[in-house]
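[job 4471] stage=fold_predict status=RUNNING
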Amino acid sequence: MPATSLEGLVTNSGWTINKLIKNTSGSGGNFCTQYEATSPEGKTGFLKAMDLSNALNSGSLEVLQRTVSEYLFEQEILNHCRDQNLSKVVVPLDSGSVINPNFVQPLNQVYYIIFDFAEGDLRKEYINKEITSWSKVFRSLHHVGVGIKQLHNVGIAHQDIKPSNILCFANDESKISDLGRVTDDKGKSPFTQLTFTGDRSYAPVELHFNAIPRDDFIDRRYSDLHMYGSLIYHLISGVQLTPILINQTRELMSNAPLTSYEEALPFLKLAFGKMMEEFYNKCEEEFGEDISLELHEIVKELCYPDYKHRGNLKYSRKIQRLSLEKYISKMASIQRKTYITGIN
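[job 4471] inference complete, writing structure tokens
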């Protein structure tokens, strides 16, 4: 395929495409091939290439146009984030297309985006291996909260906040990546018609019971809040919140067939309460009472099964409860406490 044989080529902007890193597809977007690249100044970058082969092989002009439009939207969104100086969001160093001389038109044109090279992601750094510094974990989670707030402030809902989409860089800095399937408040995203655009195993629990909130962009941002709380729970407990909550709810319902969200909600609350009790106990054992109370409050408010009572209940209006200020501040406080006390 054209996108898998780019080694040695040079982009119009002077980036040299080096070794192939991975050829795979994620939960969103059409970029599936990854390379290491070097700028004319010697800077190392991470190149994601989009392959049009599948779209062309479908024989559908509509599929091809949709694939290209999704790339152009991602490029536009990324450039917008860069221009807005979003410090905790991964933004491009370069983007465009490169010609692969081994293929004929139109297969020879491969679209790409180049980013700063990351050292890893939260999945590799903190889930797939033993955690050696909780202070670094909470610093990373603080950065994620800031990144979500930055996206919301410029009219973007991510909807795919998960460990593999949080990249770790030098100086213990973390940033949100993979903006390939975001939605925007102007409705320009190709994915606007989808209720949820990310990995459904991380989606808010109500979506698994066919409850579709209809406040449109407000609810898209609400899903980011839920996924932020779920991310905190995942890094500390080692398991994803939504699948566990659904399984425990099913057990309470005697494995009854799929019911409505309203019918399932009392059981969801009961199962969630039990999970939060276990979560608090694990946190207390690891961090002590003070930090555990704060973590328990954060996850409970961000992931509460009744989406009508989710978020900062200090505010009565739903739009106000979207504010992440409280949780960003708490996470910064937790990070400082773990650093000062030397909790590992």
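[job 4471] summary: The chain is about 40% helix and 15% strand.
[job 4471] exit 0
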